Amino acid sequence: MNRKTSFDPTAWREGDPNAPAEQQRYGQSVPSRTWILRTLEAAKGPRTREQLEHALGLGEDDPLEGFSHRLSAMVRDGQLVKNRRGGYGVPREMHLVTGRVLAHKDGFGFLTPDDGGNDLFLPPQQMRSLWPGDRVVVRAEEEDHRGRREAVVVEILERGVRQVVGRLSIDHGAATVMPENPRITHEVVIPPEERGRARDGDMVVVDILSDPKPRKAPVGRVVEVLGAHLGPGMEIEAAIRAHGIPHEFPEAALAEAEALPDGVEPDDIQGRKDLRKLPLVTIDGEDARDFDDAIHAKRTFGGWRVWVAIADVDAYVPLGSALDTHAQERGNSVYFPEHVVPMLPEKLSNGLCSLNPNVDRLCMVCEMQIKRNGEIVRGRFYEGVMRSHARLTYTEVAHALDTDVMPEHVDKGLLKHLRELNQLYQALAAARAARGTVAFDTQETRFVFDAGQKIDRIVPTVRNRAHVIVEECMIAANVSAARFVLKHKRGALFRVHAPPSLEKVQALRDFLATRGIRLGGGDDPQPADFQAVMSEAEGRPDFVVIQTMMLRAMMQARYLPDCEGHFGLALEEYAHFTSPIRRYPDLVLHRAIKRVLHQVSKRDEPLSHDALEGLGAHCSTTERRADEATRDVALWLKCEYMQQHLGDSFPGTITGVAPFGVFVTLDDIYVEGLVHVTALDNDYYEHDPVQGRFVGRRSGRTYALGDALAVQVARVSLDERRIDLEPDPAGGRKRSTSAQPDKAARRTRQASAQPPSSSKEVESERKPGKMAGRGAKSAAAKRAAKKAARPSDKQAGQKQTAPKASKKKAAAKKGSGRRRSAKKASKSN
Question: Is the backbone of residue 300 left (phi > 0), alpha (psi -120 to 50) or beta?
Fold first, then answer.
């Protein structure tokens, strides 16, 4: 029988499975959202409120006002659409799509549907009334000339931007603010009475008073003046606000933190396993201040007994507390150069939940039995109390393993335990290789500053054996934790890295074919197939380019309530357990494990599957937000550094090819810039996207991915975070040098310490560099102010160019282009 004739809407009192819960929750009985949706799906078209009341059999004795509020809430949440005649309908039945707006800095955007379908293209004319992050209802139209299915906005459900940060510009008495976030293309008008004390050129925070319309700019009010545009630390202050990162703890959370004891008290230890005599040690960077994990390994007959002890954050941050609520809002800590926005107040992150040496600390322990072949055969969890026997650095551990010499401040007896950890690592690494894990070898960088806080140079970070020893232990603990909650069927968040899509696999195959490399696996290549390509490419001149293209084929890792495996690590079970200080999903997992340990009934699980799904989406979003903010600051600092090299020449490598030009990474300093197509040698150039190159129509000259190219720094724009380059016929010899300050006066800070997990994570469980944690302004208080960068011309966007004139003319014609950095492997899987 047809669904529309068999369903009886009036039977909701008896047939609606949600009716008892509705009665208990709201004290009144009204049809649930699910029943209303079924009613409208069974109808022949949209229905007005009165028609719905009649169809559901609602009368004067029923809570009609509550029913009306429910319909309004469903419209607000995108479950229903209300047409101009007052009729309510289900979006999919009306051929409408509800979703979230993703904006591009070039003025167009995409709609990501709530139901997970394919993205829809939003042309610039549709984006004129939208902000990034808006939740909207659209109608899908025909495909455009590029094969993208376009969308037309029907209704705006929720605004995604309520505040922006940018530079105030006053011209002929009219004040505007251009947001720092490049995805926000609307200039915000500031009326004279809403400027406050802000002056021309100041960086300001603006509340939005009215939203953009197709023919009207948004209007705002200045609520905070951050300071001069190029003031010390302004890049971090602006990024925090531009990306909406919560950076102030509410009073209630601070009060809860202040009320906590300064250390572990006797009552806290009751019921915990005492590990204070076990020689657990922490291994971190030289500048770390918080230590959230400690490790120890002991040889057994068949392999090793391994302990991974993690700070017990849940002991001090109970579910539902003000500390917990705000930690959930933040989602994760955000690591900028010399400045951290922590998920938890300092008393916890650097105190009670930091495994400092020679002090008692509460911990959650993962104790594993690992065989000689690296297989984890058993993992158990318990609450413990520990005392770190040493605070070691990566450099110290690597040196000790190489020379058998321990640091003077460390017990020499710990050396034998470090050797066992090294042996354990070798077994785990061999097991990883046997699984076929995709091992990308990306280069991270750090900034080196002189005594005057000016950037002296950008250098690669150095990783050693100690880094991978810790990483392998963390991955093993993460796997054991995932297996534990799965075995006991508890709700938690898993770290999911999906296989590449068929489209991305095919695009990668097409590229690899141009390089004479074959990707195996058919339509379903496995991690081992990708690793086989990496092995084949190793040692080739174009290795970096091949690796970059493979990284781009990878999917973004996410947090989900369902365990769907980790493709990059070739693992079927994986979750994040090791960093509850800085990642909220880890804290969720700790609580799930504790519910098993304390035998809490499964009926008392605090979060439903739907709630966990929403929480996972939120944490994935805050993670990407942190990635974008730290990347923005790193780009700003690189542009600041390159301002002193205007006119200088460098050797470089083409690492990206786009229709408007080639991206070149400068050798040895790891800065990327754009050579616009109009700046290439005399010829008409055709873009070949399959092989990633430009080909001269007359000369046959090519500019391809992986090619060496000497370039000159032509223009630097701090505002647009862009460096314009042009080919240098002199061959990349540096034309000027800056004085080298005394080495003792230099200091370093990470270029981007936040794990860029949203950039295709595949590799390892790396911990972020832990900074000194000073405020952004104080951290750079001595940095000299810079002059504002000259604004650039508009992007030309040509795919071919007329013969090149003089360099000056080429520079004048040069367009902005779209910055497209090569995606890097994550520091944190």
Answer: beta
Distance CA 352, CA 349 (A): 7
Of the candidates 484, 471, 436, 514, which has an alpha carbon nearest to the alpha carbon of residue 688? Answer: 514
Q: What is the pLDDT of residues 360-410, one digit of tens each?
A: 999 999 999 999 999 999 999 999 999 999 999 999 999 999 999 999 989
Please give the DSSP secondary-structure letter assigned to residue 321: S
Residue 749: CB atoms within 10 Å: 21
| Sequence-separated (6 or more) residues with CB below 8 Å from residue 806 | none
Give residue 484's pLDDT: 97
Run of H or E residues at 414: none
Distance, in Å, from the CA atom of 36 to the CA atom of 563, rounded to the nearest integer, reads: 32
Tell me which range, 108-117, 307-316, 541-550, is most confidently predicted by mean pLDDT: 307-316
Among candidates 194, 195, 192, 131, which has minimal Cα distance to 164? 131
Nearest to 397 by CA among 368, 429, 420: 420
Mean pLDDT of the chain: 84
Whether the Cβ atoms of residue 427 and residue 752 lie closer than 8 Å to each other: no
What is the Cβ-side half-sphere exposure of residue 378, based on CA atoms within 13 angstroms?
Answer: 8
- The sign of the CA dihedral 325, 772, 399, 828 is positive
What are 781's two structure tokens?
């208080």
* Confidence band of 72 (pLDDT split at 50, 70, 90): confident
Q: Which residues of 341-359 are buried (b: 16+ CB within 10 A; e: fewer)?
A: bbbbbebbbbbbbbbbbee
DSSP 350: I
Phi, psi for residue 444 in degrees, rounded to 5 = -100, 160
**Beta pairing partners, 299:** 304
H or E stretch including 681?
A: none
Tokens 């009751």 sit at which residue? 270
Read off the pLDDT of residues 470-487 as tens digits, 9 standing for 90 and up. 999 999 999 999 999 999
What lies within 8 Å, CB to CB, of 31 at 6+ separation is 12, 16, 19, 39, 56, 58, 67, 70
Dihedral Cα 246, 248, 253, 257, nearest 10 deg: 120
Helix (H) or strand (E) holding 809: helix 807-813
Output the six-digit token pair for 242: 């531009």
Q: Tell me if 88 sits within 8 A of 40, measured CB to CB.
A: yes
Single out the residue of 384, 389, 382, 358 nearest to residue 269, CA to CA: 384
Least confident stretch, 397-406, 538-547, 566-575: 538-547
Q: Which residues of 411-434 are buried (b: 16+ CB within 10 A; e: fewer)?
A: eeebeebbebbbbbbebbbebbee
Rounded Cα distance between 758 and 270, Å, is: 41
Strands 376-387 and 360-371: antiparallel
Question: Encoding tokens for residue 377?
Answer: 């055969």
Residue 642 Rama label (left phi>0; alpha psi -120 to 50; beta): alpha
* Sequence-ordered list of residues with C-beta below 8 angstroms from that of 220, at least 6 positions apart, any chain: 164, 177, 188, 189, 190, 194, 206, 207, 208, 209
Residues 674-695 have a mean pLDDT of 90
Higher pLDDT, 796 or 614: 614
Distance CA 612, CA 596 (A): 18
Distances (CA, A) of 336 to 342, 447, 600, 631: 11, 12, 40, 9
Residues in the chain, total: 829
Question: Residue 584 is inside which H or E element, if any?
Answer: helix 584-597
Q: Burial, 147: exposed, middle or buried (Cβ in 10 Å; 0-12, 13-18, 19+)?
A: exposed
The enclosing H or E element of 592 equals helix 584-597
- Count Cβ atoms within 10 A of the Cβ of residue 77 and give its class: 0-12 exposed, 13-18 middle, 19 or more buried: middle
